[in-house]
Design a protein that fits this description.
With 348 residues, this protein is α+β, with helices and mostly antiparallel strands. The chain folds into two domains: 34-161 and 230-306, 3-Layer(aba) Sandwich (Aspartate Aminotransferase, domain 2); 164-227 and 314-347, no CATH class. The chain is 30% helix and 20% strand. The chain has an eight-stranded mixed beta sheet with strand order 5-4-6-7-11-12-3-13, with helices on both faces. Strands 8-9-10 form a three-stranded antiparallel beta sheet, with no helix packed on it. Strand 6, helix 5 and strand 7 (151-156) form a beta-alpha-beta unit. It binds flavin-adenine dinucleotide. Flavin-adenine dinucleotide binds at residues 56-62, 78-79, 87, 101-107, 109, 131-133, 156-159, 161, 249-251, 269, 303-305.
Length: 348
Amino acid sequence: MCVDEEGFEYPSVNTSECVNCGLCERVCPMLNPGASKIPLKVCAAKNQDEGVRARSSSGGVFTPLAEAVIRQNGVVFGAAFDDQWNVRHTYTENEKGLEAFRGSKYVQSKIGGSYLQAREFLKQGRMVLFSGTSCQIAGLNRFLGKEYPNLVTLEILCHGVPSPMVWQKYLDQKKKECRCTGIRQINFRDKKGGWSDYNVVLGFENGKVYEKPHRKDPYFRGFLKNLYLRPSCYHCRCKNGRSGSDLVIADYWNIKNVRPDFNDNRGVSLVLIHSEKGNRLFHSVSGNLNFIETGYEECLVNNKGFAEHLSENRKRAAFFKKLKARHTKRAFLMPFSLMRRIKAMLWN
Ligand SMILES: Cc1cc2nc3c(=O)[nH]c(=O)nc-3n(C[C@H](O)[C@H](O)[C@H](O)COP(=O)(O)OP(=O)(O)OC[C@H]3O[C@@H](n4cnc5c(N)ncnc54)[C@H](O)[C@@H]3O)c2cc1C
């Protein structure tokens, strides 16, 4: 995999060893999209454990699903921060390891060797829960090329993934502002102000804390306004059932209109059940959840994550041009001052 100038990884073919079998193109979900599907069932759900729900981005449904798999001697794959605060896919075989997966990280995670590792566990007969964005699940299913009864795929509904390079530049800037190179905690979705008015929080080793409402944080604003998503995210071909996932989890933003009595502003998960396998896993943990069934059309409202076509921010090219042009101290300051300048455009 090679990193391009925008910070995204792409596969590179070693032409001296390539035998032209065409398999890489046949498994690419962007070149061969699946058909869209309506879910079998739609639920709004809240984890009954308020501590876990508070530490999760939505209603905290991921944790009990993953714990159920671990209890069956299974393996759970998910996205975690590494020691440099990059986001990588990895796996855990115990409940303690699930903590690193909890909470959304709004950066593209590196899939690394996780497809190969998952296939090894599947061949050994271990149960595997693989969680990832729509394209990561589509990629896994095509890579495996066959159904495994011991695999459950958990799709994280995804508006689009920001560039890992922009993320690192943002962290560099925050480290400078807080005069500390050591970060000890990052939370994109701190719910102290409520589920809908979450804050971005960075905790530093010198005790300083950066805390901003997400709408005022430059990185989050740029993410929500499609300034530096991966180019393929603007025309995603893996959402809306196309990935072949068993379950999809998301924020149920429209619950406030659908069932206001169910919304306590501490987080409500949207769960889309696409298969009998997914249905069995979800119902096996229903004792840990408060949940209700709702219609499909109403869950799509107020959620950009379902959009297959996102409009690219018209400042995207200028943003990356500035980022590329500078390699000095101002290299990371410029793009964010650019973001400040386009603030009015972004939020009007
Ligand atoms: C980049 C991104 C964009 C999203 N966009 C939307 C959206 O537009 N609309 C919407 O309703 N929901 C969106 N979500 C999903 C939402 O933020 C929650 O992750 C989801 O509802 C699960 O919440 P939870 O409370 O059940 O569990 P949590 O504990 O909060 O979620 C943990 C799960 O998220 C996975 N995860 C975390 N970061 C990543 C990552 N970078 N890549 C892959 N998997 C990751 C973990 O592996 C784990 O499976 C997005 C998530 C990500 C990562």
